[in-house]
Amino acid sequence: MAQIDGFFKLMNDEGASDLHMVAGQQPLLRIRGDIERVKFKKMENDELRAMLYEICPEEKIKLFEETGDVDFGYEIPGLARYRANFFRQKYGVGAVFREIPSDILTVEQLGLPPVVGRLAHLPKGLVLVTGPTGSGKSTTLAAIVDECNKTRKDHILTIEDPIEFVHKSQKCVINHREVGTHTQSFSAALRGALREDPDIIMVGEMRDLETISLAMEAAMTGHLVFGTLHTLNAMKTVDRIIEIFPASQQGQVRSTLADALKAVVSQTLFRRVDVKGRCAALEILIATPAVRNLIRDAKTYQILSTMQTGKKFGMQTLDDAILLLLEKKMISPEDAYSNAVEKSKFLKFLKKAPADFTEV
Questions:
Q1: pLDDT digit string, tens, across residues 310-348
Q2: Which domains are assigned to the chain?
Q3: 359 touches 343 (CB < 8 A)
Q4: Are 331 and 315 in contact (CB under 8 A)?
Q5: Cβ proximity of 99 and 90 under 8 Å
Q6: Between β-strands 173-178 and 155-160, what pairing exists: parallel, antiparallel or unpaired?
Q7: pLDDT tens, position by position, 31-49
Q8: DSSP structural state of residue 41
Q9: What global pTM score does this model have?
Q10: Nearest to 264 by CA among 345, 206, 211, 330
Q11: For the stretch 259-288, what's the b/e string if a residue is b when 16 or more beta carbons lie within 10 angstroms of its beta carbon?
């Protein structure tokens, strides 16, 4: 048993999402969104480095020594998997660990709208799950892939950095590939994927032009492609994909994206006030013919109004999702206001003036 495993056990017991280990400080846990210190001594740099290196593969240690940053996965059988990031900072080494539960929750268990589960049954196309860091994108994507695994007879290929949720083959056969361990890059893995007879491809993060281009190409050639992006809402997701390409290519990219895109699920995570835990508010864009035309015609600013009138297709805006959680008394009015797009709608729920004076 590695020395650091005791902190992972504490993390699991406390229901923490993240563990921070930084030279010169006590260990810290993120519990329900807040950072809390662990009652433990401040960690000296050499002591912490030895503790971290104990669980880090040799090739990753070498990469960390060369670059100052490294990501990898670590697993404690029977407890959980962890996504690890090592970095250098002013006082020495630092590390952040994100807990990835061993059990994959279903769409129903997560309380997601039924349309999210139906995305698993699409024959082909591009489905994007977006949101800020720590918003639960991986958890939602894992639930969708799990639905595919249980109901389809296909080959699922996942490409991640590092591997997070581990799916056991059920009706589908699943292959997990880790960037830096099993393949050089997301783009290299995607190029190879087209020769590996996949039906469904899950791309852990669409970081650059080449990866996005290859993902759209795979979606256009009959594959169902799931991917994640760090964007705040559906409109910004469409704009981000187009704007990453040179201006001379953007017209063609709009046309390709309009044909390839099936849905965008953009989520924001909230602390619950009724019970311990957190919940997600989802903005859902379904690529109906009307939405496809807006993308082709560079009128993405009109997508919001299409979502507002497209509830029969399963669409919903972030503000509508937040309002529903607020009416169910699952989240606080303050959190609802601070995360809303049209904040004026939520002023009436506040007991005092908003804390963020820049929004007034």
A1: 999 999 999 999 999 999 999 999 999 999 999 989 989
A2: 5-101 (3.30.450.90), 107-347 (3.40.50.300)
A3: yes
A4: no
A5: no
A6: parallel
A7: 988 899 999 999 999 999 9
A8: P
A9: 0.89
A10: 206
A11: bbbbbbbbbbbbbbeeeeebbbbbbbbbbe
